[in-house]
């Protein structure tokens, strides 16, 4: 059982809405600042984004951040100043390391369908790294946790993240199926769509998250078809 558990409901997230974007923020982001909600463990951004057809984020810059994108529906086109290009779709893991500085754009690759994706940022354990890009096909996901990204020593993952204390896992569960989350000092369990019961915490559904501290690995059981994203973190910002 966790030493501390906090459920963060979807309805309590800040929302950015424009003519082409709806973005729901789990942490402080952009114009939405809450000094009591800037991060959890090493995770500083967990945005649920819906981008309209033939629209998207124009070229903008980042530095010293590991930016991971997980597409749920549709396709997202990436282009950056290091010459990397790619189209991200469901089942493809993608990471951009901003490092010493990089500019990129993210556009809906369809003229007719919206794209829905979760973007997550973690702080690297070194500053001023060379900017980098990686994507890798995961394919089928089912009733087991698949390690999407990791910097943990000895941990196999689809893509690498420049922080030895962080790993991202995912699963796609049918009703009644369950997985056991990793034991970790900091565990962020997020449901972009679906509904699960978190052992020792209760039920969460579309857009909800549970933040668990010093957990021995709770059981996560689906109540309906569910997509699941779990951050395992063994450190926090500031040590």
UniProtKB/TrEMBL annotation:
Residues 12-122 form the Pirin N-terminal domain. Fe cation binds at residues 60, 62, 104, 106. Pfam families: Pirin, Pirin_C_2. Keywords: Dioxygenase, Iron, Metal-binding, Oxidoreductase. Its cofactor is Fe cation. GO terms for molecular function: dioxygenase activity; metal ion binding. Binds 1 Fe cation per subunit. Residues 148-233 form the Quercetin 2,3-dioxygenase C-terminal cupin domain. Transmembrane segments: none annotated. PANTHER family: QUERCETIN 2,3-DIOXYGENASE. Belongs to the pirin family. This is Quercetin 2,3-dioxygenase. It comes from Mycobacterium sherrisii. The lineage of its organism: Bacteria, Bacillati, Actinomycetota, Actinomycetes, Mycobacteriales.
């Amino acid at each position: 059982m966790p030493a501390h558990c906090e459920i963060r409901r979807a309805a309590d997230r800040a929302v950015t809405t424009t003519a082409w974007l709806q973005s729901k923020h789990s942490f402080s982001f952009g114009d939405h600042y809450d000094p009591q909600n800037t991060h959890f463990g090493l995770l500083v951004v967990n945005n649920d984004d819906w981008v309209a057809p033939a629209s998207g984020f124009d070229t903008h810059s980042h530095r010293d951040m590991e930016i991971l994108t997980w597409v749920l529906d549709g396709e997202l086109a990436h282009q950056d100043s290091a010459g990397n290009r790619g189209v991200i779709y469901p089942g493809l893991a993608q990471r951009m390391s901003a490092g010493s500085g990089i500019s990129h754009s993210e556009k809906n690759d369809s003229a007719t369908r919206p794209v829905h994706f979760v973007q997550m940022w973690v702080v690297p354990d070194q500053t001023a790294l060379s900017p980098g890009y990686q994507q890798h096909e995961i394919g089928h996901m089912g009733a087991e946790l698949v390690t999407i990204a990791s910097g943990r020593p000895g941990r196999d993952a689809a893509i690498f993240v420049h922080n030895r204390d962080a790993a991202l896992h995912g699963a796609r569960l049918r009703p009644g199926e369950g997985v056991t989350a990793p034991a970790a000092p900091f565990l962020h369990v997020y449901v972009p769509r679906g509904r699960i019961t978190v052992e020792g915490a209760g039920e969460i559904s579309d857009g909800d998250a549970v933040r668990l501290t010093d957990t021995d690995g709770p059981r996560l059981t689906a109540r309906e078809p569910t997509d699941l994203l779990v951050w395992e973190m063994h450190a926090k910002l500031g040590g």
